[in-house]
Write a structure and sequence with these properties.
Jelly Rolls; five-stranded antiparallel beta sheet; 1 helix
Length: 212
């Protein structure tokens, strides 16, 4: 009887340990699900900014485009040069003399018109990987101050935002809703520099997440 009690106690302990392990694993999975960015940095993961709302769609394709595919508007008296390197696009803005130096970068992304079965993927999250090379008083320049998204010739959203980084970073931009881009997606980055020195903006890549 004593041996039977010890055996039952041992079985109960194993079952309890297994239940705790499964529960912990499930919690870790859930935490991972909500802690990983929708668009990864350098093939890895990092905290979301903004947090991904995964409630609307269950499938997605994240398409990252290399920075050498981006284009800038010339002539532009604020731009010294645009250099296409193996690792992306580099823009040099002239030093500030009066006013603020500005430039625009067109970032086209291949898009879906339709998928098999008449499915039309939609986009809420876009991203850019970049850095700004001059630091003044704790702020890096140039900075992005506006993002526009086009569906073909139609302007879909204009987002007033400000971001810059002294190291390569991935900035995720939440469009606030899911939009169809069936005529081609163009992400337009507006950058500016407000310093009395040459400043460089490096664009290594940009992305869109298509969900359905």
């Amino acid at each position: 009887m004593k041996r039977m009690s010890l055996l039952l106690l041992g079985i109960f302990s194993v079952m309890l340990f297994a239940a705790v392990s499964v529960s912990a694993g499930s919690s870790a999975d859930r935490a991972s699900e909500y802690a990983i960015s929708p668009i990864g940095q350098g093939g890895g993961t990092y905290p979301q900014s903004p947090v991904l709302d995964g409630g609307a769609y269950t499938n997605y394709d994240t398409i990252f485009v290399h920075g050498v595919n981006a284009e800038v508007h010339f002539p532009n008296s604020d731009l010294e040069e645009a250099v296409y390197n193996k690792d992306g696009l580099l823009l040099h803005l002239f030093p500030k003399v009066s006013g603020i130096r500005k430039a625009e970068i067109n970032c086209p992304v291949p898009s879906y018109q339709l998928k098999t079965g008449g499915v039309q993927p939609r986009v809420r999250y876009i991203a850019v990987e970049y850095f700004s090379d001059i630091m003044v008083s704790g702020h890096s320049w140039p900075e992005v101050y506006k993002v526009e998204v086009y569906n073909g010739h139609v302007l879909v959203r204009t987002i007033s935002t400000t971001f810059s980084s002294p190291i390569y970073s991935v900035q995720i931009i939440d469009l606030g809703n899911w939009y169809a881009f069936d005529r081609g997606l163009n992400i337009v980055l507006s950058i500016r520099s407000d310093i009395t020195d040459y400043s460089g903006f490096y664009l290594s890549g940009y992305a869109a997440r298509f969900e359905w």
